[in-house]
Write a structure and sequence with these properties.
- This protein is an alpha/beta fold.
- The protein has two domains: about 260 residues, 3-Layer(aba) Sandwich (Aminopeptidase), CATH 3.40.630.10; about 120 residues, Alpha-Beta Plaits (2-Layer Sandwich), CATH 3.30.70.
- Helix content is about 35%, strand content about 30%.
- The strands form three sheets. Strands 1-2-4-3-5-16-6-14 form an eight-stranded mixed β-sheet, with helices on both faces. Strands 7, 9, 11, 12, 13 and 15 form a six-stranded mixed β-sheet that branches.
- A hairpin with a 3-residue loop joins strand 1 and strand 2.
- Helix 1 runs antiparallel to helix 3 and helix 8 crosses helix 10.
- The protein starts with a helix and ends with a helix.
Length: about 400
């Protein structure tokens, strides 16, 4: 259980942490563009006397804290730093100052939680071994985990085990959620471009491949892949997030190019392969039916997150030490959200946990990736305590 001295210290530093979190929120940066954020993270780590390395995988930062007790074991704690391309609509005093960019997933909070833990561990390194504080860029589909791994993350900063954490809107404040085995889905960003000659939609539509019809049939057909090609006992999601073509200023012109984009999710490798094959066949067939051209690209940005038993036991014990065992859901249902932390877990055993971000009295809440979302500063002490408690669980004598 978290000792009172740690709780008191976290409470004393809470105003500083809230200020950090809101400053990051007000200055969001997209993946691999987190220059200001990474500079701020590095400056805080160095201010607290922590050995700090920057530029890992582009804008990644790693802080290294060695315990005062002897020990060879090393663990990694990871937080993500990037924002999303969303126009914020919260109206908050710390709302985004960068139009079209927003911390709509809580990475501002995740970064703050790990910074808060860094300060506590640096002030009282009463553990044996080493803690690597991994501040990762570009979790939101821009390849940040892979970039850090390619830059020798675990060769330069050895880890015997790694841990990640994410906030959960709709989860009660004071709760944690985790499960062993499959917990989060693998996923991709896909993009289909249909092409044709384009032309006048009033005088000669019969001479033109109508890409609006092509995309309509393609979009409707997508859900037959999930509903009729994949077993009801398997997990699969295909969603459209973008459609563009033509110009609103020229609605009488049929476009020569129309783009459809979205995401897909899976757990089983066979499902991943089937999704890619059937989407490709569908796109090519509807394009051929109407005499259009087509290009399709899949960018598989995350693998499924499979929590290892040993590390999940540690995470459950740490969360229980913070909020009590009754407030830890150790058999939470699998989720179809994706996490590129999975690429790090492919290299090292680890576990990923969710911390409740709160819910309104009427049961409502703003989900991640929406323009009204905001990280709940009320959970900062709990998240910091979790990281500190996890270090004590992993690196105690």
């Amino acid at each position: 259980m978290t000792d009172q001295a740690t709780k008191s210290s976290i409470a004393a530093h809470l105003p500083e942490l809230v200020a950090i979190r809101r400053d990051i929120h007000a200055h969001p940066e997209l993946g691999l563009e987190e220059t200001r954020t990474s500079e701020m993270v590095a400056a805080k780590l160095r201010e607290w006397g922590i050995e700090t390395t920057t530029g890992i995988g582009g804008t990644g930062v790693v802080g290294t804290i060695r315990g005062r007790r002897p020990g060879q074991r090393s663990i990694g704690l990871r937080a993500d730093m990037d924002a999303l391309a969303i126009f914020e609509q919260t109206g908050l005093g710390h709302a985004s100052t960068a139009p079209g960019k927003m911390h709509a997933c809580g990475h501002d909070g995740h970064t703050t939680l790990l910074l808060g833990a860094a300060k506590q561990l640096a002030e009282r390194p009463d553990f044996s071994g080493t803690v690597q504080l991994i501040f990762q860029p570009a979790e939101e589909g821009r390849g940040g985990a892979l970039a850090m791994l390619k830059d020798g993350l675990f060769e330069r900063f050895p880890c015997d085990a790694i841990y990640g954490m994410h906030n959960m809107p709709g989860g009660q404040v004071g709760t944690f959620h985790i499960r062993k085995s499959g917990f989060m889905a693998g996923g991709c960003m896909w993009l289909v471009k249909f092409t044709g000659s384009g032309g006048h939609g009033g005088s000669s539509p019969h001479l033109i491949a109508d890409l609006s019809i092509v995309q309509a049939q393609f979009v409707l057909g997508l859900q037959t892949i999930v509903g009729r090609n994949i077993s009801a006992f398997e997990t699969a999601v295909i969603s459209v997030g973008h459609i563009s073509g033509g110009a609103v200023e020229a609605c009488n012109v049929m476009p020569a190019e129309l783009v459809v984009g979205g995401t897909a999710r899976y757990y089983a490798q066979s499902v991943k392969e089937l999704i890619e094959r059937r989407m490709t066949e569908l796109a090519k067939s509807v394009a051929a039916l109407h005499g259009a051209g087509v290009e399709i690209v899949f960018d598989w940005v995350a693998e499924p997150v499979f929590n290892q038993d040993a590390q999940t036991d540690v995470a459950v014990a740490a969360a229980s030490g913070v909020v009590g065992a009754a407030a830890v859901n150790a058999n939470a249902p699998p989720r179809t959200g994706g996490e590129d932390f999975s690429f790090m877990m492919r290299e090292k055993p680890g576990s990923f946990i969710f911390i409740g971000n709160g819910v309104n009295a009427d049961g409502s809440f703003h989900g991640v990736h929406t323009p009204h979302y905001d990280f709940n500063d009320e959970i900062i002490p709990l998240g910091v305590e979790y990281w500190v408690e996890l270090v004590q669980q992993e690196l105690s004598l």
